[in-house]
Amino acid sequence: MALVSIKNLTRIFDVSKPWLNRVVERREKAYLTAVSDVSFDIKEKSVYALVGESGSGKSTIGKMLVGLLRPSEGSVEIRGVDLAREQDAARVDAVRADIQMIFQDPFASLNPRWRVRDIIAEPVAARGGDTKGLSEKLLEQVGLSARDAGKFPHEFSGGQRQRICIARALASEPKLIVCDEPTSALDVSVQAQVLNLMSDLQDDLGLTYLFISHDLTVVQHISDRVGVLYLGRLVEEATPDDLFDNPKHPYTQMLLAAAPQLGSFGRDVPPPKGEIPDPINPPSGCAYHPRCPLAQDICKAERPLMRDLRGAKVACHMAE
Ligand SMILES: Nc1ncnc2c1ncn2[C@@H]1O[C@H](COP(=O)(O)OP(=O)(O)OP(=O)(O)O)[C@@H](O)[C@H]1O
Ligand SMILES: [Mg+2]
């Protein structure tokens, strides 16, 4: 059974100017659709990766999943509980206790005045749990030393700080961790170490991850399934091998062509073609059609629905 089930998830932000400006400048209200009609499942003990360019709605989906943002439409169910609509507070609390989030910037998410011991144990202390020796144990689990518990965040490198964030996320023994670009602020050499650590922990502890990244190559080895987002919509979903060997959506193909490749070091990599459209006035039909080399009339007129194609799912009129 799926641990997380996301159905027709949509989030619209009101980005209008203040009322007086609208009246004086005669402007309409403006709405930005950050996430539109996204559906996918995350199986228990698996890693689902969400990839897409900046502004494609990845973080917005992550925030709705952990309950930091309310969906405008659609639902997120975790073990059958819809965090935004469930009336039974005890059930909501039980599900919440199973979820943690790890953010991109490890420094901003660590309180600089607290010792690492207190930072790591905080989620457990907040629930009145037993924190004796907990931070020391977790520090060793993430490859740091128990002695580090007495230090402050500024005494660590970026990679070590992200390990502290991971330790804190593990403290409350969650089942599901939403990782929002956990390695993109790190040096390339450290990225791989932190990724390996996260992957080992996932195996050892039987965790489920929603792993968010703008970089397809980062998620290639860690994920069991990959969803590709474009302008708030899921355009393709497949296993990583399938996606890399046989990308079906022209957008995925373009992303892969633009990704740095082993062996192409020092060679020019073509940058992604075209501009990301304005999400307040998205293109008609398939939002990718202005950038798409395969676009036909139907792509301008009709939004492609997600359909099954040889084991993968793709939302494209032209994909064969
Ligand atoms: N609170 C908000 N109010 C208004 N617009 C928002 C808000 N949060 C996000 N957006 C808009 O929603 C869209 C999706 O944002 P989101 O942060 O989910 O993108 P992302 O895929 O995580 O991008 P990045 O890779 O840069 O982190 C963007 O156009 C963004 O400007
Ligand atoms: Mg983001």
From TrEMBL:
Print the keywords alphabetically: ATP-binding, Nucleotide-binding, Transport
Q: What GO MF terms are annotated?
A: ATP binding; ATP hydrolysis activity
Alphabetical GO CC annotations of the entry are: plasma membrane
**Bilayer topology:** Peripheral membrane protein
SMART domains in the cross-refs: AAA
Protein name listed in UniProt: ATP-binding cassette domain-containing protein
Top-level taxon of the source organism: Bacteria
